[in-house]
What we know:
The protein is about 40% helix and about 5% strand. By secondary structure, the chain is of the alpha/beta class. The chain has a 4-stranded parallel beta sheet with strand order 2-1-3-4, sandwiched between helices. Helix 2 (about 45-60) links the parallel strand 1 (about 25-30) and strand 2. The protein is globular. It starts with 10 loop residues before the first helix and ends with a helix.
Amino acid sequence: MRSRMMSELSWDTYQRRLHDDDAIVIVPVGAVEQHGYHLPLGTDWLMASYMAGRAAENVDGIVAEPIAYGARSQVRTGGGPHRCGTTSLNAETLIALVHDVLVEIGRHGARKIAVIDSHFENRSFLDEACHRASETLAAKGKEVRILKMLYAERIKPETMKLVYAGIQDPPGLDLEHGGILETAMMLYCYPDLVDMSRAMDEPAPDFPPYDVFPIDPSWVPESGCLSSGKTATREIGKLLTEEFVTQVTNALRAEFRD
Ligand code: MN
């Protein structure tokens, strides 16, 4: 089967896919960030790449190089910037990087670009990058539509019930950093990178409704996870992952039908 990875295509094949096939180019954006003891630092960008790859299969698209680094990890959403390995970009850098990549892809002839995000903190900066790229491309006379999606933004209530089955006081999505969802999806998508023997069962933090700077590391549980991934299974991971793959695919089909 022909490759869907931009880096594995020759320049003229890429050109043909953009010009003749009007292929959707999918850009995964993630983060390099701690996810506790049991998950790898690449969890976010690996999952964004996985989603991009599966969606590309469904829509005959191309997966561009992932933008692995993301916006600064925040204490109440990603466990904060202080642990070794959490390697973040300044907001200005991320906006400029994503803008430049999108403009290049559009300049070469893509008319349909999708940015698939996996890291909550990226959100507003990706909005800004997409907005600016859209303006830059319009000024160059390029007609390009950009779709941006946090792949895990919505989960069906019935799926959440299954994910949290048997758990008293489910932590909720706000504390899902290194918790059941990410652990389960990684068990399904990248099983060799998960070490369940190191998954902790600490109490979830009770954050106040504000942030402080400089950050207070004592707010974050020892492992760096904001809830426990201990009860995650591959089956839960399959359920979640397939739901998200469908959502991403449906979004691309809805916005990029001709
Ligand atoms: Mn993250």
